Amino acid sequence: MDILDRNEETKAVLESNYQHMPEATIMIVDDEPITMEVVRAFLEEVGYHKFILVENPSEAMKILEETEPDLILLDLVMPGISGFDILLSVRVHPIFKHLPVIIMTSSSDTESKLKSLELGATDFLPKPLNKSELCLRVRNTLTVKACHDQLAYYDPVTNLPNKRLFMERLDWSLKKSKRYSEHLALLIVTLDNFTRLNATVGQSAGDEILRQVASRIEGVVRNVDVLGKALAGDDSRMSLFRADGVAFSLLLDRINGEETAALVAKRVIAFIREPMRVEGTDVFITASIGIATAPTDGHDPVALLQLAASANSYAKNRGGNAFEFSSKAINEKYNRRLTLETRLRKAIKNEEFVLYYQPKVDVRSGVIMGVESLVRWENSEGGLIPPNDFIPLAEETGLIIPIGEWVLHEACSQLKKWHQTDRDPISMSVNLSVKQFNDPQFFPMAKKIVVGSGIDPDCLILEITESLLLDDVETKISIMNRLRDIGVNLSIDDFGTGYSSLRYLSKLPVDELKIDRSFIMDVVENSDNRAIVLSVIFLAHCLGLKIVAEGVETKEHLDILQRERCDQYQGFLFSRPVSHEDLFRLLPPGDSSTKNR
After folding, report:
1. 311 with 325: CB under 8 angstroms?
2. Residue 596 CA to chain centroid, in angstroms?
3. Model-level pTM?
4. What is the pLDDT at residue 20?
5. Engineering a disulfide at 185: which of 20, 252, 259, 360 sits with its beta carbon 3.0 to 4.6 angstroms away?
6. DSSP 8-state secondary structure symbol assigned to residue 329
7. For strand 353-362 and strand 322-325, is the pairing parallel, antiparallel, or unpaired?
8. Is residue 52 within 8 Å of 143, Cβ to Cβ?
9. How wide is the angle at C-alpha 402 spanned by C-alphas 397 and 408, nearest 5°?
10. Distance CA 494, CA 514 (A)
11. Long-range contacts for 523-529 (Cβ within 8 Å, ≥24 apart)?
């Protein structure tokens, strides 16, 4: 790119910045609210609409760090902390030392003006403010800032913040994370074999690849759904930089832990791996990512950068298209996790799952009335893998959807076989995950399996957890009603531990409540838990619902449930979850007197 092209590109960027100048955030610090409102009104008339008003000067620096405005309009004479004090703090701050500050004051003496300028004030406006002068000074200041930022802090190819801005941000973020005991992750992203590719496609196409890579990483950064609850709060931040050559730096502030960094790295790699269309040709490229975290790897910016770079080199030397942590322990943890995910995908393909069944027993008669189906992973290497070892991973990766479909199909098939024997018919309960229930294809899939299996749908109970009702309750109720229309029953599992609102309970099309085992375990000794259990039983009966207690392990537990007229129970007192052969042996022979119970 020659000088003329570069100048044209810079001009275009500056014109774009000028057009978006009304999007600038302006902080106004003044102990007089009326003055701030007047200033805001003046600036709103010319298009600005993002303002931060700070009446208490002692809060100015804290709010500055939280909001990062583009310009400060600062009063000088204020109680407690003066504008001079704030200006000095801004100029020594590692991030805001170049932030433009326009002084507004009624003080007209030359000494105040000179002192402000000596401390680094960008401009000076006397009160009372003239509207035209104010708007002109703000516009010119923001224009100069845009030009300075573009030349000093931004990469001309990708328009991302450059290494200089990255190092300032890294140093500041690490100090902040140490001060507030927050987690931070640094991801170094490099493109595999880019030098060879660049020599093949040429400089222009190489720059286009870098721009597309930057856009794809930014797509991950913008997609908050990627992180979900992995973020520590609404003010969590993901900042992308073009650090050097083909290296990008991704800084994750205020995260819950290393899991977030791994999740983001995995998504970035997947996004970059998708084919790119460059100058009419499909280009395929992969990336390697090295990750260092604070506080695990310390708070020194140079050391953290070196650790992330080393981890990146390690990932690249192992073939690329992968990420690595700098910590050996964390590396081992995530290698195990990735191995488990690979094995889980293979297990779905090979149907390496089996159902076990937990009997649901009538409290009064002790007769099995139904079972709850529980999935187990029958590892091809031998032995059963318990659900706690793979269900959370299946939920996170979305694999719970095909697993859940298999479980429903297998449960209905087994129920049909039992009903074709000489035993009394029993019910079958199947757990639904939140992700499975929210899947748009869930209802068509469930209807197809239930109708196609030929079972009596009244013998099928679908269990949902209270957390499903956390949001968009009306939509969930609509889906539940559609399930009821095909004849199945619905149950709320783990009742009392989640988010259910009693206001909604009477509206929910459910047939059963299950008391969570945590309330049953110490129901004998804990009067509070006993009161909760009794209240739930009473509530369920008043609403015409069946009530089932989970986790019944002692005769004392059962005595209380019998006394309070609970309907059914599950737990080790009667039986652990068993295979379908063992369950069949527990079922009493058919009795014509109980066929219609």
Report:
1. yes
2. 48
3. 0.56
4. 53
5. 252
6. H
7. unpaired
8. no
9. 135
10. 6
11. 523/557, 523/560, 524/554, 524/556, 524/557, 524/560
